[in-house]
Amino acid sequence: MPRTALLVSPRTAVLVSAALLAAALPLSSARAAEDPAPVPVDRFEGEVPFAAQPADGIFTWGSDSDDPPQLQLADRPDAPEGAKVLTGTYDISGYGGFTHDFAANEPAHDWSAHKGIRFWWDGQNTGRKTAFEIKDGGANGEASELWTTSFTDDWTGWKQVEIPFTDFAYRTDYQPVGGIDHVLGLTQMWGYAVTLPVGVKSQFAMDDVELYGKADQALRANVTTDAAVYPVEEGGTAAVKVTVATTGSAPIDAPVTVAYETTDGTADPGKDYTPVTGTLTFPAGTAPGATRTIHVPTLRDKAAEPAETIPLKLTVTGAKAPVEPPQVVVDANGLPYLDSKLPVKKRVADLVSRMSLEEKAGQMTQAERGAVGNGGDIATYALGSLLSGGGSTPTPNTPEAWAKMIDGYQLRAQATRFQIPLIYGVDAVHGHNNLVGATIMPHNIGIGATRDPGLARRAGAVTASEVRATGIPWDFAPCLCVSRDERWGRSYESFGEDPALVQSMETVIQGLQGPADGRELKDNDKVLATAKHFVGDGGTEYGSSTTGTYTIDQGVTKVTRQQLEAIHLAPYRTAVDRGIGSVMPSYSSLDILGDGQGPVKMHARADMINGVLKGRMGFDGFVISDWDAINQLPGDYPAHVSTAVNAGVDMMMVPYSYKDFRTTLVDQVKAGRVSEQRIDDAVSRILTQKFRLGLFEKPYADTSGAARIGSGGHRAVARQAAAESQVLLKNSGGVLPLKKGQKVYVAGSNADDLGNQTGGWTVTWQGASGTHTQGTTILDGMRKDGDVTYSKDASAPTAGHDVGVVVVGETPYAEGVGDVGNGHDLQLSAADKAAVDKVCAAMRCAVLIVSGRPQLIGDRLGEIDGLVASWLPGTEGDGVADVLYGKRPFTGQLPVTWPKSEAQLPINVGDTAYDPQFPYGWGLTTLAKVPEGGMVTLHALAVAAAVAGKAGADETGRALVAKARLIVQQKVGTGITVAVAKPFADADHLSLTGRYGAAVEQLIAAYKAA
User: Fold this and answer.
1) pLDDT score for 177
2) Which of 279, 107, 95 is nearest to 194 (CA)?
3) What DSSP letter does each residue of 480-519 carry, written as one string?
4) pLDDT class for 387, splitting at 50, 70, 90?
5) What is the DSSP pairing of strand 385-388 with strand 57-62?
6) What tens digit of pLDDT does each residue of 979-1003 get?
7) Percent of residues in the chain assigned helix, strand, coil, to nearest 5
8) N or C, which end of the chain is more exposed by having fewer CB within 10 Å?
């Protein structure tokens, strides 16, 4: 997994020279008699293989392709142990190093009997720090806690570096799992890693990693409290549970004492609480897990006041003390903002009037949960929000662990003056996609293909229910981008290329939030929704991106003002009308032709955020920045902050720079570059949503709905969505639906791959091939319905089968990583092409394309009998099988134009020149027989549709247009010409905008041209 540079921490390593070593050999005689024998970890004699991450063994990593060091096992006559040593060269610009992960299919290593870890290092006298980390607990080496220290290479030749385990500190800048228990247990160790110095070209050699010494009790035993914060109502008594634990299961072999006393906080002794002092004793022989309780009584007075803190000092003898001392918090009470009966507006005004500038700045700050370590910074910086980025999950990745983690963060917020709860956000863009076992919906491109607003709403409701049940009240969805170029790596996050289609699918907002007035936001199955990315992210020009190797994502959208209004802004007008709670600006730049500004980053466009969104549209929610987006603005960091805030961004997603942002924002206000009025507006908007969500009354997770996560009822909605998203593009000779009695030959890379089927933004940011969550593949579903033979590469004999189904397409990607030209194209892989060719040459065949965007298939269209755009159907492959076997009819329609070649892109409905492989809106059906009567029937349908349009009878109007579409598609067959495609596509746009009579007239034009 990606890594960031390790933080360094002080250490007390002992450096032993090679000469001293020679004098001391053998090691066993040099150690104290009571010490256990050293235990080898790595001898580097060839017993541990080099591997590719995350396989077991030694592997390298780095921030880019040239940062991983070059490793080898080399024979060295001066090797401190054995014949070989591990050698390497490096020249690192970002970060790089190597890891040894222990075998995940074997028990973890128990290091608890030893004092520390040591190894031989061939010094180059670089004067640079080298970071060394160990991996503790969790499921395996890549799902463990990282504990780190460092040593300085300030010598030449071999020296032995000894690092006591007491020198290792919990790593706070990066954790692959965000922390498990924040205790260096040592009984489940999964390996170690070395991060090499940056900015120096050098080499290293290392040998004989081993455990040494005997662990004393102060290392093996530790004292913990059951929480770091103990909120208590005024007049109540806090109960602080103190527990002794050991790194093994053995009882403690010497007494452990804990002296305690209340110390100065913001609460007054004698007035707000009764001071306590004393000593707890755990005698020798006490079993690990034994608990004692300290009681801290608080006193009631008649004053309304904010929360007050009572730190509890613990002095521990015979064991490690808690990482931080606990503190009792006397809850805020009697203040108007705490009165749930008052109108939200009054509660907000009261609270804002009491807050300091620093507290307000904290509310405008959002950090990544992996950056806040044990959570202490939440109170220190009065943070208003945390998020989980893609793949940022607790361990284990279960609903219970999510709720426990978020409750722990919310508890930290209770230690602030006004106990303002956090609002926790997550990218649940097609279900609760970070959670293993959640119901994963088709990506938005598939939802757009369903043309079913009711289903979109139900899909949103399922997502909201599963997200809120894990303690998360805020979803960074839906994406309301209008995708105008399918080379974009985010195109599958769009409902389609037509703003009218996107607007029709915005029923998902009500699924997520409930009614537009927000009255259901406090319910345990609703979340705050986010319209993203404002505005024009789907219209960026190919080749305009300046972000890394991206080609189109985060680029420049060049439009006239009329195009901006009609295409990209239209969905946001609808979202505001639907009561959307938050909006996220785009990374991209907007260049409105003729306005004289040129390209301007959206996070800096006050004219669009303040002027259009908040002003003209009347948006009353809050604006959240995209991930670290302000760092893409011009100027220095203070300019980034003031520009974005003044442009109307209310909360800043600054995942790892939250401290700098908060401090800088305060400084900018004091310098007069950001007004206090602007700060109050931003904070009021944020607090309004927190009150509406009911977080002040119920900050902790309501897990009563957790049983519905991944339930049959929820999966049934996803199964229906998968079925309705299937677009039948070609069906020569009625090859589909399949018949029960047919012998079906199934091939292709995506027939039996749940990861490919769910795509990006699934468990991890980029997604991954293979099985990483729970669901059914398309093959699984087909096997339930028919007589199926499966051969992924079509190498099995094809004889004796009636029909072939070849499931091909893309592997997962997200955002600019998936841009065409950035290692991706729109072609099928060579293996997929070969499978199509072999199967379709041997029998009648249907080809399913599982992808986030159209794939170029025109050169093989003649040999294919059936062609289906399956998009990314999610976890419920049964839904795809349902339409293949006729349990449900094919009803999907293309949400984007299917091009003939990449050179045609961008190609969209409404273009003057329009010659696609399949036009926007195309979709054959197996629902019903095509109406007879040809042109006569079409004219009758046109009259009836016009009447329906004038009467506002939308359901009737859409049904009439659908009938006309079937007549036209039957006549057109595979003969889609320019004269057919343009009016056909225009008809679907007209139908979506309620102009049903005009839509049928366009279909008549297509019919005549066929």
Assistant:
1) 74
2) 95
3) ------TTSTTGGGSS-S-HHHHHHTTHHHHHHH-STT-T
4) very high
5) unpaired
6) 999 999 999 999 999 999 999 999 9
7) 30, 25, 45
8) N
What is the per-residue pLDDT for 176? 81
State pLDDT tens for residues 774-820: 999 999 999 999 999 999 999 999 999 999 999 999 999 999 999 99
For residues 491 and 542, is the Cβ–Cβ distance under 8 A?
Answer: no
Closest CA to 1002 of 968, 966, 957: 968
Determine the average pLDDT of the residues in 877-888. Answer: 98
Residue from 67, 145, 753, 815 carrying the catalytic annotation: 815
Whether 409 and 686 have beta carbons less than 8 Å apart is answered as no
Helix (H, G, I), strand (E, B) or coil at 403: helix
DSSP state of 474: E
Average the pLDDT over 341-369 and give the result: 98
Do residues 169 and 148 touch, judged by C-beta distance below 8 A? yes
Cβ burial, residue 734 (10 Å; 0-12/13-18/19+): exposed
What does DSSP assign to residue 321?
Answer: P
Q: What is the CA radius of gyration of the chain?
A: 31
Tally of CB atoms within 10 A around 66: 13
Contacts of 264 (CB under 8 A, 6+ apart): 311
Phi, psi of 361 (to 5 degrees): -60, -35
Q: Are 744 and 839 in contact (CB under 8 A)?
A: no
| Cβ neighbours, 10 Å, residue 687 | 27
Run of H or E including 193:
strand 189-195
Q: Distance between CA 245 and CA 776 in Å, rounded? A: 43
**Per-residue confidence band for 12, with pLDDT thresholds at 50, 70 and 90:** very low
Which residues are CB-contacts of 80 (< 8 A; sequence separation ≥ 6)?
18, 21, 120, 158, 160, 207, 208
Question: What token pair was written down for 653?
Answer: 């997603």
Instruction: Verify whether residue 626 is a known catalytic residue.
Output: yes
810 phi and psi, to 5 degrees?
Answer: -100, 165
pLDDT for residue 246: 83
Name the active-site residue from 208, 626, 819, 882.
626
> Distance between CA atoms of 148 and 165, rounded to whole angstroms?
10
Determine whether 72 is exposed, middle or buried from the number of CB atoms within 10 Å of its CB (0-12, 13-18, 19+). Answer: exposed
Task: Mention every residue, 6+ apart, whose C-beta is less than 8 A from residue 707.
Answer: none
Rounded to whole angstroms, the Cα distance separating 467 from 473 reads: 7
Note the pLDDT tens digit of each residue in 598-633: 999 999 999 999 999 999 999 999 999 999 999 999
Question: pLDDT at position 248, please?
Answer: 65
Per-residue pLDDT for 180 more than 90? no
Query: What's the pTM?
Result: 0.86
Residue 260 has pLDDT above 90, yes or no: yes
pLDDT score of 179 = 67
Give the tens place of pLDDT for each residue, 714-760.
999 999 999 999 999 999 999 999 999 999 999 999 999 999 999 99
Cis peptide before 26 (omega within 30 of 0): yes
Q: What gap in Å lies between CA 11 and CA 347, rounded to an integer?
A: 50
Short-list 752, 702, 689, 704, CA closest to 881? 752
Nearest of 588, 817, 633, 846 to residue 738 by alpha carbon? 846
Selection from 217, 624, 190, 172 nearest residue 384 by Cα: 624
- Tell me the residue type at 665: L
How many other CB atoms sit within 10 Å of the CB of residue 89? Answer: 13
For 555-594, what is each residue's pLDDT tens digit? 999 999 999 999 999 999 999 999 999 999 999 999 999 9
Instruction: Evaluate the omega torsion of the peptide bond into residue 737 and state whether it is cis, within 30 degrees of 0.
Output: yes
Q: Which of 846, 805, 851 is nearest to 828 (CA)?
A: 851
CA 416 – CA 378 distance, rounded (Å): 9
Containing H/E element for 147? strand 145-152
Q: Is 110 a catalytic residue?
A: no
Task: Give how far the C-alpha of residue 609 lies from the chain's centroid of Cα atoms, to the nearest Å.
Answer: 25
Say how far apart CA 865 and CA 317 lie, in whole Å.
79
